[in-house]
Amino acid sequence: MTVIEAIKVPTADELVARAQALVPVLRERAAQCEAGNRVPAETIRDFQDAGFFKILQPLRYGGYELDPDVFYAVQMKVAEGCMSSAWVLGVVAVHNWQLALFHPQAQDDVWGDDPTTLISSSYMPRAEVTPVDGGYRVSGRWGFSSGVDHCEWAFLGGLVKDPETGVPDFWTFLVPRKDFTVLPIWNTIGLGGTGSHDVTVDDAFVPAHRTHRSKDGFAQTNPGAKHNPGPLYKLPFGQVFVRAVSSSSIGALQGALDVFEATGAKRKSNNTLASIAGDPDVQGVIAETRAAIDEMKTVLFRNFGVLNAFARKGESADLETRLRFRYQSAQISGRCCELISRMFYLAGADGLYRGSPIARTFCDIHAGRTHVANNPNTVGRNFGAVMLGAPNADSFI
């Protein structure tokens, strides 16, 4: 591999400003994004040009290798314009972080010729795995591969029996485009623009270096650690990935609130002709939503401040901290669903039309809540049980 020459790394403020500049453009493309069941190619180019896919990518491949909170600040800002676009950015760009955890040969397989190459995923443990000399034969069908139309590789999930314990462990298999087929089935009531199609693999060979164990992600004993020694790659996999599928809801809620305030300031009731601005329910939901967004962002940035501090010392956060942070991420989508629902009702019948940004955001945030990582119930039960003395049952923290 030829190491990429050092590049000028933009500041967090510069990257967020680039995202802010794209918000009006993304709002204009939102209908096209949704109708086409995919993020427009122009938007992916805009993200590439702005350097968003580089934020979590290793420096040795021309990336910026910045802290995750910088990336999530950008993702939330993008979501103010289009949640589908922000969702794809979040999921696909976080794969550049995960690839850095793989064996260095896998990183070079993907980025050796073109460090802008993108990776999609479906972590469902659907792989039929057969160990063979030098690797594995893999087959299966996976759903919800967001942004796959724009990607040349895919991370696909499967279960492999741990030779030490005999217990099945979750593994990720890295598969090139030539070995998987995209089934264009995505047609949903929310996040329609994510193009989260199904993919199939028929008896593909995956060399051992293109695999990653959940066990290594949990214990931070990843094969890529030696070649990517920065603190960014010492963070727990579960803590980084889950925020990629929850943070866009915060930004989308902010975008809807901006529209709600702008229209509410001048809108009148179709029935009473009274000013909406004088409605105490409208006033209340604005106040509560603004406060909730501030709180959710504050917790997000606080949590990664704690995790980054541990990583810089070469340490891992304690179990209780990781469980609490994981649970706080899982709570995000549900809280945003409650607030966007109240906003949607108060927007009145005019908000029912498909072109309404508030209606679109209502559907998108509720769709995001269906992701398994955004379900707080199982996570919360495990967290509570551990606090009562039970063993931890979740390695995805």
How is this structure best described in words?
This protein is α+β, with helices and mostly antiparallel strands and 397 residues long. It folds into three domains: 12-111, Acyl-CoA dehydrogenase/oxidase, N-terminal domain (Butyryl-Coa Dehydrogenase, subunit A, domain 1), CATH 1.10.540; 119-212, Butyryl-CoA Dehydrogenase, subunit A, domain 2; 237-387, Butyryl-CoA Dehydrogenase, subunit A, domain 3 (Up-down Bundle), CATH 1.20.140.10. Helix content is 48%, strand content 15%. It is built from twelve helices and seven strands. Strands 5-6-2-1-3-4-7 form a seven-stranded mixed beta sheet. Helix 4 runs antiparallel to helix 8, helix 8 (247-264) runs antiparallel to helix 9 and helix 10 (319-346) packs antiparallel against helix 12 (376-387). It is globular. The model has no long low-confidence stretch (mean pLDDT 94).
